[in-house]
Amino acid sequence: MKPFSYSRAETVADAVAALVANPHAQVLAGGTNLVDLMKYEVIHPEAIIDINPLPMKTIEELPDGGLRIGALASNSAVAYDARVQAQFPLLASAILAGASPQLRNAASTGGNLLQKTRCCYFYDPSTPCNKRAPGSGCAAIGGLTRMHAILGASEKCIAVHPSDMCVALVALDATVEVEGPDGARDIAVCDFHRLPGDAPERDNTLARGELITGVRLERNHFAQHHSYLKVRDRLSYAFGVVSVAATIEIAGTQIADMRVALGGVAHKPWRDQLAEADFAGAPAEEATFQRVADRLLVKAKGQGDNDFKIPLVRKAIVRALRQAASGTPQSQTNKKIQ
Amino acid sequence: MEIALERPGSLTCPLALTINGNPYTLDVYPWTTLLDLLRSNLELTGTKKGCDHGQCGACTVMIDGQRMNACLKLAITLDGTAVTTVEGLGTPDDLHPMQKAFVEHDAFQCGYCTPGQICSAVALLQEGHARSREDIRELMSGNLCRCGAYSNITDAIEEVLAKQATDPSHREAAE
After folding, report:
1. Is CATH 3.10.20.30 correct for B13-88?
2. Rounded distance, CA A264 to CA A269, Å?
3. What ipTM was reported for this prediction?
4. Between residues 92 and 121 of chain B, which touch chain A (CB distance below 8 Å)?
5. Residue B27 CB neighbours (<10 A)
6. For chain A, is the Cβ count within 10 Å smaller at the N or the C terminus?
7. Do residues A105 and A76 make contact, with C-beta atoms less than 8 angstroms apart?
8. Is B1 on the interface with A (CB under 8 A)?
9. B97-174: CATH number
């Protein structure tokens, strides 16, 4: 790890001012991703701004029945919160599908949103990577692509976003609260992460100096019909190969509202609201779910090693929707897929 | 206001924390991890360095009662916290119930992952989310054992969990 200067922020304004003052400064919360990347010298900040003293750990109920999760609430605190489990079980399930108990105890909500890709070329400073060193090229294209994107990739980058939590947040239409030099603003989580395009070094739409302060979840009607299905190389403690967060509101036998977010397939958690809307009123049954999967994957394109992800995620979408519709969400303890 | 902790002419920062019940007042480089502080600076070598990247769990300790990977925690961020390592759980003459169960069940072979397994298991029972063998397996997944002693590790934890469930005094002893 390269040396850096260290300071502690006592207020959000301190952290914002420190970020504005030094473009090579990084905010440190749980450290589970940033410290690891600093050890590999993938990231070498000049200055670390420790935001752990900030009072942002609370999970509170909102007047409209939703919840606000402080940016420093740990992944464990969120996943085991009784209100989260009752109102947003999809989020609890997705968090528990990821990492290990030790990592979930340390990792923060804001940090999870800012997770870097696990692309092996991003992690290896001896290879070109447009995300790590803009303009240097992409070693993944034409390289080992088993874990890479099948949707939304560009000629500059085919990395995927590794989070489980964010896939659920996208399905739940969460809002990210940020504060920066120009004050506070909200970012819809669907607009928070971005596709690589010509600037894969930018993972998200945060402006310089902006700090995530919390995440808001609006009340919804999905608590009975949801499932987070994660497919990975070993049953626990592994990044997803593909994952699906599915929620359905069923009226009689028909889909009243349906949301499907995909993990492990793109530079951001993948969701297609226009496609979802087309299935309103369709029968909540297997044939519909297959059409949903086909529709979501119309533009899917493999890179060679990862061609298998297309049929894999197609089946995972159908299965997750079936689990959601029948009210039998995927267990994150017994991983046998029902 | 933002507090810069380095002093003029020095690269180190002051750090005060409690480790296994003992208070420490230290000066550390900001880039020193808790794991390196324990092993190299304080010679508390019970905590092991396996992968040093949060992938194996050999460095698991408890920070304010919560199990975490010591390799991914910068020590300087732990000012005011209480850290418990395997050295703080029991002694050779007075083993922690979890240590005793690991011995009785032969829950290790080379032993390198064992301190992390035991710290993780003790925290697991304190968390209170494990009800079954299946739960134990899932919630111990952050601790790898390359010798493959998993079934005996699970047996040991299951026994302590069962004793806790039937005997509240055992729970207090285990905590």
Report:
1. yes
2. 8
3. 0.96
4. 120
5. 12
6. C
7. yes
8. yes
9. 1.10.150.120
